[in-house]
């Protein structure tokens, strides 16, 4: 039986990078047996984060990052400030959802500015 996870995260990178150690940034997980129940919960979180943070980038793969420019942390290793992201992701069995389930309406953003990411991690 397939399970669906709606994962919230807080950290240096947008969720779609799935860099090594990405699960260390998880702040909560809610599991569902039904995809549409998971999607409904994701949408509820999306609306709340959209109301709380001025900038966002959402992907049709049902992954979104929200931020405010003043939420950054200093990275000693790369000697620069790194943007911190509040992210939500809808996964199936801890993997990206299949492409046929993607939601084109979520593929949008409202901030085209430069976002600092650790140059050592890429």
UniProtKB/TrEMBL annotation:
Which residue ranges does the record annotate as region Disordered? 102-122
Q: Name one Pfam family in it.
A: DUF1033
* Positions with biased composition (Basic and acidic residues): 102-115
Fetch the InterPro entries from UniProt. Answer: DUF1033
Which named protein is this?
Answer: DUF1033 family protein
